[in-house]
Design a protein that fits this description.
Length: 720
Amino acid sequence: MAEVGRVSVRDPGGLLPGGFWAAVAVWLERPQVANKRLCGARLEARQNVVLPRAEGWSADPKQEELSPPVRRMEEGPGPGSSSRAEPQLGRVGGREGDFPTADLDSLWDDFSRSLEGSNPEMLAFLTRSGAESRPAAQREFEVVLRTVIPKTSPHYPLVAPRREIVMQDIFNGAVTFLPLEEDDEGNLKVKMNNVYQIQLRHCKEEWFISVLIFCPEGWHSDGILYPKPPWLGEELLAKLAKWSVENKRSEFKNTLSLISIMKYSKAYQELKEKYKEMVKVWPEVTDPEKFVYEDVAIATYLLILWEEERAERGVTAKQSFVDLGCGNGLLVHILSSEGHPGRGIDVRRRKIWDMYGPQTCLEEKISLPRDDHSYSWYDWVIDSHYGELEEYIHTVNLKSSYSCRFFVLPCCFFDFAGKYHRRQSKKTQYREYLDFIKEVGFTCGFHVEEDCLRIPSTKRVCLIGKSRTYPPTAEPLVDEQRTQYITSRRGCPVHLPGGKPSPSSPWVAAGCVGHHDGHRALDIRVECAPEAKATEHGAEVQVEGPWLPGFHPRDKAERVRNCATLPRDFIDQVVLQVANLLLGGKELNPRSSQNGSLKTWNGGESLSLAEVASELDKETLQRLKRECGGLQTLLRNSHQVFKVLNGRVHIRDWREEKLQKKKQPEAKQRPFSESFKTRVCWFFIHHPDGCVLPSDCCPFAHGPGELRPSQATKRKRPIP
């Protein structure tokens, strides 16, 4: 036995020992959080046991009372499980059927008999001080059977899932991991060489967490399921210490809780290899790696979800789908290529659409939740980060067919006719909005399930509606109820008394950072009238019916409002005006010498954005207000001249930039003299003291004679 690591834990919040068991539960149920080479774990069974005595053990009625039948994980958590404390815990790792569930009762019975008199060292290791001196209550332990699932990757050798018995000594703060292996006859037994234990100790008003290995000289590490001892004693121990004293409660479920993790890991790696070339030919301005691998992950989730649905329903035909607001269309392309008939609809065509081929059906049109059966033949309606249509997806399903299902990945916070307004301050805005979408789904008659995807996005909780809460015969009654609900969510009746239409609400601007294909902002016009108008292909489209009053989708042409389209002379005028404000009021000094040795250089003063704005004329301010970010965006875009920090504007001193560059790793450093000087130095032309840097150190040209066009050639994109 050897201790491979120990760390002291400060507990100002008094969270220990409960926090320790919360941290253990993270490692037990979500090992991929600490070990990135794992995909997850599945907890299969749990039971309470009693260890044998050292001098000999035999089952008796009292012991049998302390060893109830095995509890499957669906029966509820045990004393050391995820319900005790946070971080977020709970059942993890997919569904039954990934791996044959072993009989925990028989496994533990065989292991207990092996300890009976023949292995006192292991018995002492499990009990920390031996079983002899313990009262009967403290000889009771909880054991959990889990399957650890490695991540499928071309970089690591193929490793099959492994099972472990995890023994939790609640009374004495120790948890032991007993890996199982098959013998020559195919029977499972404990692999003694790789047994390790995590302990919590309290000594002299200090808490300590340590990791011990039962047989350090025989430890076998494969680098995936069995890390090296230093990793256990350093990396894992540091994470456990941190989790033990974190007093925060997660609002979301564990990832991939509704599907098989094992199937997901294998399918994701296959799709990633299949579609990774899309990163090299990505023609959009968005980050290719982020969007390609995100769509691959979403497609993998849907494919596994639909595969399991077909198995449940006993059908073989692959589900059809429609993706509303499909954006770049890659999700549609992947699902279609994998054999699912469907199409994608978006208000704007993307460059990448031409690369997919005729088998991928994409349409440039406005997706409106009309009061008809526009999508009646589709099995699933998908909304992935679309925005305005998230709450309408339920009504789209209702007007499609009784068997239609939905998959929603909410992103931006919209109500039926405008920006969603918060109602509960005790929840985060994201959690409250998810609950609102679930409320809409339930009111519309769906059983709504929630899951968390593994995608590179902060908005990764999906909502799924696979079945209805009412029979088909109750459709008229439910339809009346949901119509009243949707009308109430619009905040005003369709008509006022006397037949007059209600007054229109103002335009509502809603931020939309993080959209699926890079949308930043959109406008929603709220009009509580019996009919709404939208523009499609340059003409007004009349949309009628009670579902849509007030809905207005984003415009086909997205307006750029980041000051980039402002006239160059207007931008130069504002830059000069602001620079004069910052440089004013100080005695101007003569220019520096050509060798760059500065006696004095006027760096100006700093002014707040409000102070700068107060000095600009009304017409200039009005023009800037029509741009997103206004004055601040224009000044940030003028990076060569200004630095905006904490709401204050400064003249940029390029000597500081040189110092920052020296602090970078040598591999990232590039002398300014090697830069292609494609722009004239603003300070050389306009600053009273000239440029703070000599010509050979400045990244900009000191006069037209130094201008050099960039020699970088655009990389030709190969044709897929």
